[in-house]
Amino acid sequence: MTFLSKTILPRGFKASGVSAGIKKSGKPDLALFYSEISAKAACVFTSNKIKAAPLKLNIRLLKTNKSFRAIIVNSGNANCFTGRAGLKDANAVAGFLAKELKVRPASILVNSTGIIGKRLAVDKIKSSVPKLVKGLSKSGIAQAKKAILTTDTFSKEAGAKFLIGNKPVTILGVAKGAGMISPDMATLLVFILTDADISQNALKAVLSESVNNSFNLITVDGCMSTNDSVMLLANGAAGNAIITSGKNLTIFTRVLNSVCLELAKMVVKDGEGTTKFIEITVDKAKNENEAKKAALAVANSNLFKTAVYGENPNFGRIAAAIGASGIDVSEEGLKIKVSTIDKKEIKVYCAINKGKAKATVYTSDLTPEYIKINAEYN
Amino acid sequence: MTFLSKTILPRGFKASGVSAGIKKSGKPDLALFYSEISAKAACVFTSNKIKAAPLKLNIRLLKTNKSFRAIIVNSGNANCFTGRAGLKDANAVAGFLAKELKVRPASILVNSTGIIGKRLAVDKIKSSVPKLVKGLSKSGIAQAKKAILTTDTFSKEAGAKFLIGNKPVTILGVAKGAGMISPDMATLLVFILTDADISQNALKAVLSESVNNSFNLITVDGCMSTNDSVMLLANGAAGNAIITSGKNLTIFTRVLNSVCLELAKMVVKDGEGTTKFIEITVDKAKNENEAKKAALAVANSNLFKTAVYGENPNFGRIAAAIGASGIDVSEEGLKIKVSTIDKKEIKVYCAINKGKAKATVYTSDLTPEYIKINAEYN
Prior knowledge:
The structure is a homodimer. The first copy, chain A, is α/β, with parallel strands linked by helices. Chain A contains 10 helices and 14 strands.
């Protein structure tokens, strides 16, 4: 496997991005990912009990429908906490696009990200859809990946090329992150396209594993979003022997894991107001769950995160966070190492002397800029 | 019951506070609360698995010893994550004081608060103990309540006078707070003195109830401390009929609840960098536990807290936090009201339409000043 050094859309996919006027700034805010042929889909959604309208729509759709053609995404408005009206709006967006693409509305996945609790400007989307569809091309991915962003400062993309049998297969993923980033759900919006031919069951299983090993290991602010979705479309255009199990599934899983982890790290690096990227490993835990729990407790400690921002290596705050995490740990067994803290990337290693399990999570520091961004966000 | 409008130490108690030089600032950092006669004690400690040395000492002591004479407190150093040496240091402090007071070391409760992971300057405490003991007086409480503070900007005190039978009884509590404030444990340091005569069992039960209804309902930064302790000394000097159950216990409980809640609110109002006091009520929950869980999820949401700082009424962040809290809730059933947000005190009311239970918690906003304080703290 080699990571893609430049953007390559997998075969059979096109993309597009336009400014629909949902964002006051006039920046791109409407994106489309389109497969020329029928694609299988696997999705992971937030476990937040308050789910945005498009998620409700998608969850219902995925229960009955197995063939998809497009993902539409607006940024600037989350279409969440908007009740029945919000659901109607999400349906309307799918309807406009279906008509323009000449596909069934049920083959479209709808996504929204941005402010919670406000009605979506459906009319703006309606009038922008023709231009959006017209703009579909291989190079349209450049605009599409910008149009999904909110407070992100750079667009996030990771892709890889590899062989299944003798057929070259491509995976390309794009993500938006920045705030309301906390794990134990599919965090943020991620769209992954692949031309691999892979069975529906394998696709679902592999995405779930990859999300657990990437997006569920990151946190920016411990806040769980209502709109988080990771979507994977596989259209089979690579013409490989269908992946179901065995060696080929192992290869595909490894590549997808790498792509997801790469995107997850980018999301952390672009965490709102962040100045440091922090890797936290908890080792010698009773089991992986306890290792992860302890590592996330450190990653979500405001006191630890401000200490890193202040380049102030405060071991006590790490110990306090692990002690409060609810896992089995004792002062005597706890060893903490922190790398030089005046660098942009910090590593924290904690051994807790209770077993052999290990977990690594990723986070950013907590800065005055984070507060500024979120105090003013509206 | 009437709240005390000026500081009155309950009968049989004296206090003192001096500068021992533990704090670099030279501010008072060593406090003593002393009972002239034997007092019963009830304590609640942090549930953090990493407990400071003095807590380990106190926990052991309380298992066997039923009679106490003094509480000594140093600020500026938490004597936590200091291993066997830290335990030896805490023991030494009790030893110096016991000798000077001419009491048994086992009748002394030791407390520390401040930075974690550094050895305590035991020699500085040793040389300050004679002056500390000499300073014991009724008016010494003024210095004592200052000497327990760390990043607090004001000292916190609440007291009440009431009758048990025909005997006037006094309760006086002092607290320190500011950072590492998160509930589900006895948060922060609180010392409560009363001249009531009350049975050991009743004392323990009533303190536990009061802590649950006050300090366990507040959060500043969601970070659980390693040193949190609430200590209640009752020396019986009021000469009331001993409180064991029934009406008198009800009276005592009600007063102690009020004193604790008053102190807890002061701790929040003095949260590090805070500009707003926020009261969050979750109503119509399935049970009290779910109501509390949801209210605390909002109170610990960095996004909600920055929105309040920015005077930016962002209902979506409240909905997102409740949805992520793990309780049973649906968008349809959720109603949110927020008081005018440009005031110093904000009220949030959420009804979740799942039952009849209700809980109120207290928190502060998250500000750039919090980050400044904690980035530089060392």
